[in-house]
Specification:
By secondary structure, this protein is α/β, with parallel strands linked by helices. The chain has one domain: 3-Layer(aba) Sandwich (Rossmann fold), CATH 3.40.50.1110. About 45% of the residues lie in helices and about 10% in strands. It has 15 helices and eleven strands. Strands 6-5-7-10-11 form a five-stranded parallel β-sheet, with helices on both faces. A hairpin with a 4-residue loop joins strand 8 and strand 9. Helix 4 packs across helix 15. The N terminus is likely disordered.
């Protein structure tokens, strides 16, 4: 009996050591936090409720090595600068992540401005790089009190589903130089039990952001976090002496209704990804239901846009598979109006005789280049114009 207790204690110690080693890799330096909170980041600024908003800047990240100009109303608190028809009242607001913000193009090159120029009326752009579906929903609720619009374009990009579950983005994505992606509001879910819980930003004040420099605080706050354990499982998958990180993933898998045999490195990572994806897509479905509830209550009409990185488009063209099939089926079942840019690219690619790589280079430089944003705008213009009442000046009845 004594031997068993000692062995279990040893496993606990090893597991805690693994947690601490992983947590150490995530810690911020106090001087970096101080600089970010002081507004010295090239991209973002702290927001206690939403995690972060954007800052005015010029960055050399555009097409052909060009410098892009990013300008936002109200010192980053409002939408991206309106170029076309800024003197008119806007009846269309757009929400989402960097594919809504239109990262890597200048103010007048966004898909919103292309649509605005074509339709003859302004479209506000409230997109923020790095955001989840949940953050976009929360900002929609905030902004619609201040700058209400009858029509909402709600853009959901591939990784946004996974971001819903992130309590601290850097657990899953390493910190980018000059760009803070700290803690954020998130959701806890279990698709098997139908659990869905909205959770606030773990660091709701500027002072609390310094906790991300404290190893003990990080360990205590995130050791039982879903995404933390998913990423720890991936990290330790090759080591079959992972002790309780292996046991924990097996336990979580069972609660998620996943009964895959988990006894080697590949199966550990496979089960971890399956749980992660299943939870992420389920989270987005529930958040879309919240968006719909908000829209119905406030007499708004929502057009959803599903956008993707070039790798997702390439995978679909080459293999015929997409990770978000369950979410697309949900949108169809609910009969929600949406534009699927995956389908739009497949239809477009069929017109060409070139490699997938060469095709995608026309539109992507990481995010969409100006031509990619034109593609985005053109893919949704007909459905948007049909929704609008009265009709835009470009398409009078």
């Amino acid at each position: 009996m004594g031997f068993c207790l000692q062995a279990e204690s040893t496993k606990d110690d090893k597991n805690m050591n693994q947690i601490k080693e992983f947590a150490k890799e995530l810690l911020y330096k106090k001087e970096d936090v101080e600089a970010w909170l002081a507004g010295k980041s090239a991209f973002s600024q702290y927001d206690g409720e939403l995690g972060w908003l954007l800052s005015d800047c010029r960055v050399q990240d555009g097409v052909d090595g060009s410098w892009c100009t990013y300008t936002y109303e109200d010192n980053g608190q409002g939408c991206r600068k309106i170029i076309n028809y800024s003197d008119k009242k806007s009846r269309i607001n757009s929400y989402g992540d960097s594919f809504t913000q239109c990262h890597q193009v200048s103010d007048g090159e966004t898909w919103q401005e292309i649509l605005a120029a074509h339709l003859g009326e302004p479209i506000r752009n409230f997109g923020v790089g790095g955001w989840s579906v949940y953050q976009a929903y929360l900002r929609m609720k905030r902004e619609e009190k201040k700058s209400p619009a009858e029509y909402i374009i709600f853009n959901i990009w591939g990784d946004d589903h996974f971001r819903n579950l992130d309590a601290w983005r850097n657990i899953r994505v390493r910190q980018m130089a000059g760009f803070g992606e700290p803690t954020l509001p998130y959701v806890k879910v279990n698709p098997e039990t139908k659990k869905f819980k909205e959770c606030p930003n773990p660091c709701p004040t500027k002072e609390s952001v310094y906790n991300l420099c404290d190893l003990d605080w990080v360990v205590n706050r995130f050791k039982d976090d879903f995404v933390f354990n998913i990423m720890l499982a991936h990290k330790n998958a090759a080591d079959m002496e992972v002790n309780k990180s292996y046991d924990k993933i097996k336990k979580i898998a069972t609660t998620f209704g996943i009964n895959t045999k988990i006894d080697d490195a590949a199966s550990i990572s496979g089960a971890a990804y399956e749980m992660h994806a299943k939870a992420a897509l389920y989270a987005s479905m529930r958040i879309v239901e919240l968006v719909e509830e908000f829209a119905k209550k406030n007499n708004k009409k929502v057009l959803y846009v599903l956008s993707f990185g070039s790798y997702d488009i390439a995978k679909m063209i080459n293999e015929g598979t997409r990770f978000d099939r369950e979410f697309v089926d949900f949108m169809k079942k609910k009969k929600l109006p949406y534009v699927d840019l995956m389908d739009a690219h497949l239809e477009d690619y069929a017109k060409y005789k070139m490699s997938v790589e060469d095709y995608l280079k026309q539109y992507y430089i990481g995010h969409y280049n100006p031509r990619g944003n034109f593609f985005h705008a053109w893919a949704l213009k007909n459905k948007l114009a049909k929704m609008l009442n009265p009709k835009p000046v470009a398409y009078p009845e």
